[in-house]
Specification:
The chain has 88 residues and is mostly helical. The protein folds into two domains: 28 residues; 56 residues, no CATH class. The protein contains four helices and no strands. The longest helix is centred in the middle third of the chain and has 30 residues.
């Protein structure tokens, strides 16, 4: 019975380690490629993927910041709400 529990514990720890560190296991695969040309191609693909992710994140950040200008009614409402509740 204890051997079964120990085996289950080891299996769960292995699954947890894989679940919590998937990005590092993917990023580490290039360095284990034996042929230099294939390894360098792998590094280039990883750099392109990182650049694409950074570009997408930057575009999303810019899209989130852009907001329409306030109208006079919006400004008046903001002033009235601000005077009612300071710091809310």
């Amino acid at each position: 019975m204890t051997a079964r529990v120990a085996g289950l514990t080891i299996a769960l720890l292995g699954a947890a380690a894989t679940a919590f560190y998937p990005a590092t296991s993917i990023a580490e695969t290039c360095r284990f490629i034996d042929k230099r040309a294939e390894r360098e191609a792998c590094y280039v693909r990883q750099d392109e993927e990182r650049a694409a992710k950074a570009k997408a994140a930057e575009a999303a950040k810019k899209a989130a910041i852009a907001s329409p200008p306030l109208t006079e009614d919006d400004r008046a409402m903001f002033r009235s709400l601000h005077s009612i509740c300071r710091g809310c």
